[in-house]
Amino acid sequence: MVDSEANDGGWHAPLRHIPAANLSSDTGQTPGMVRREAISARTVGSQRIWMGETTVAPRTASSNHHHGDSETAIYVVSGSPVFVFAEDGREVRLAPKPGDYVFVPPYTPHREENPAGETAVVILARSSQAAVVVNLDGPLT
Fold first, then answer.
1. Dihedral of CA 79/132/129/24: which sign?
2. What are the structural domains of the chain?
3. Tell me, what's the pLDDT at 130?
4. How far apart are alpha carbons 57 and 83 in whole angstroms?
5. Can you say whether residue 2 is alpha, beta or left, with left for phi > 0 and alpha for psi between -120 and 50 degrees?
6. What φ, ψ does residue 21 adopt, rounded to 5°?
7. Each residue's pLDDT tens digit in the chain (141 positions)?
8. Neighbour-count burial for 28-49, b at 16+ CB within 10 Å, e otherwise
9. 65 beta partners
10. Which of 3, 79, 90, 137 has the maximum number of C-beta atoms within 10 A of its C-beta?
């Protein structure tokens, strides 16, 4: 059986290696955090995913934002990030540990916080080829 999407005349596109030192901060940003792009249409020609790394400095918080129609998966590498969103008119706080995952549905307003004294690092994957970031004014609720 041949997968025609993955096989064009017997040739496949090559795998791509993006060294950590080559991640780019030339992507959508939110105050209070730094996003660095690894996998995207711009960096490797991906068509359906975006992937990168975000750091949140100690004792800081991002602004409220959402990621448009993108689904976002987050893997906590290190630190103590807190993810805040609104549910039933109140703020809810998720406090995952390193090794945990968080899912952010499309258009869901949220913010990242880092109340700890060490930098928090997370890996992001999105269902779009671009780092969609819509910064919001006002509270989550």
1. negative
2. 31-133 (2.60.120.10)
3. 65
4. 14
5. beta
6. -70, -15
7. 344 455 556 688 888 889 989 888 877 777 778 888 899 888 888 888 889 999 989 999 988 999 899 999 999 999 999 999 999 999 999 999 999 999 999 999 999 999 999 999 999 999 987 667 888 988 887
8. bbbebbebbbbbbeebbebeeb
9. 110, 135
10. 79
Say which residue the tokens 């990030």 belong to: 81
| pLDDT computed for residue 129 by the predictor | 77
For the beta carbon of residue 108, count every other beta carbon within 10 angstroms: 15
Could you count the other beta carbons within 10 Å of the beta carbon of residue 124? 22
**Residues contacting residue 98 through CB under 8 Å, at least 6 positions apart:** 76, 77, 78, 79
Say how far apart CA 124 and CA 71 lie, in whole Å: 10
Look up the pTM and report it. Answer: 0.82
Return the closest-CA partner of residue 80 out of 104, 34, 115, 124.
115
Tell me the C-alpha to C-alpha distance, in Å, between residue 30 and each of 1, 4, 9, 65, 133.
Answer: 46, 39, 43, 8, 7
